[in-house]
Design brief:
- Strands 4, 9, 13, 16, 17, 18 and 19 form a seven-stranded antiparallel β-sheet that branches. The protein has a four-stranded mixed β-sheet with strand order 5-6-12-10, with no helix packed on it.
- α3 crosses α4 (about 260-280).
- The chain has one domain (about 5-290).
- Helices cover about 20% and strands about 35% of the residues.
- A hairpin with a 6-residue loop joins β5 (about 60-65) and β6 (about 75-80).
- The chain has five helices and 19 strands.
- The chain has helices at about 90-105, 110-115, 195-205, 260-280, 285-290; strands at about 5, 10, 15-20, 45-50, 60-65, 75-80, 115-120, 120, 125-130, 140-145, 155-160, 170-175, 180-190, 205-210, 210-215, 220, 230-235, 240-245, 250-255.
- Residues about 1-10 have low confidence and may be disordered.
- By secondary structure, the chain is of the alpha+beta class.
Length: about 300
């Protein structure tokens, strides 16, 4: 069991950290920032391919007993989509990406404008399909341990995992999408500003280094402190498409793959400039590295 350490702001953990934000509760969007949700302008499709770099478990919340075990142990079931296939639900993936976006920007207003708010009501401008394996897969049964401590909450902060936690007591097992599985999904965006698209790409773990596209680990699901739930974009198999509506028809144009720096460069630079303008002291590169550090 890990010991609780104390830092300047109180107790800290050796395997997760906190990124300060102005709020974690979706709220008011200024008239200057707000985009009319009824206008079909600046519409994009992000067609993404990802790979799991560790076993991934997204739970149904259902626990069963393994009858072939002596003694019997808990088994956590993996969630399936409406077709009965294992999937990362769009809502789960969106939740992770929106949290990453909040951590990068530090702004609940920017996050509310892109991902939606109920104070006042404003629907999301981005819509996530389920993330699914293109081919049939067999779920892997993995041993899992009890929750890792210390559990620490810091107001107006986003928690990010930065190192592997020590082992605890054996709990049972869980069904996982195995490491090395290819997954695919589509994200649709309507009324997206250039800087918002750049922030969305960075929130998916994509960045530029020396004008070369890099990708880092997205973390989701159960067991993140032990290295479970990590996946990465495959930029050469992912692309941006713009959509223009003309009456009852639409014109879809490919802007290129995410592997090409000229496809993403303008959007990411626009995002960095927007954040720097709003908060010159915010170190976006340092924040990015903390969010997406592999475990």
């Amino acid at each position: 069991m890990s010991r609780q350490k104390r830092g300047v702001g109180g107790p800290v953990s050796p395997y997760y950290d906190f990124i300060k934000v102005d709020s974690t509760r979706r709220g008011k969007i200024s008239d200057k920032l707000f985009t009319n949700r009824m206008e079909l302008k600046n519409t994009y499709l992000l067609e993404l391919q990802l790979t799991t770099i560790s076993d991934v478990h997204v739970s149904t919340g259902v626990k069963e007993l393994e009858e072939n075990g002596v003694p019997e142990i808990i088994m956590l079931q993996y969630v399936n989509n409406t077709e009965g296939k294992p999937a990362i639900p769009g809502s789960s993936f969106k939740g992770v990406v929106s949290t990453n976006y909040l951590a990068l920007t530090g702004s609940i207003e920017l996050t509310s404008e892109l991902f939606g708010s109920d104070r006042p009501a404003a629907i999301s401008k981005v819509f996530f399909e389920d993330t699914v394996p293109p081919k049939s897969i067999e779920l892997k049964l993995v041993k899992v341990q009890r929750e890792w401590k210390p559990r620490i909450l810091v107001p107006k902060s986003v928690k990010v995992y930065t190192a592997k936690a020590p082992p605890t007591v054996h709990y049972g097992s869980m069904q996982c999408i195995p490491k090395g599985t290819l997954l695919a999904t589509t994200i649709r965006g309507v009324g997206i500003k250039d800087f918002e698209l750049g922030g969305l790409l960075m929130s998916l773990g994509l960045n530029l280094k020396n004008n070369e596209v890099t990708t880092e680990a997205i973390k989701l699901g159960y067991g993140k402190p032990q290295g479970f739930g990590q996946l990465k974009l495959i930029p050469e198999n992912s692309k941006i498409q713009s959509v223009e509506f003309k009456g009852l028809t639409k014109d879809i144009k490919s802007q290129g793959t995410l592997k090409e720096s000229n496809t993403v460069n303008g959007y990411i630079k626009a995002f960095m400039n927007e954040i720097n303008k709003r908060d010159p002291k915010r170190n976006l590169d340092q924040t990015f590295q903390k969010i997406f550090k592999g475990i």
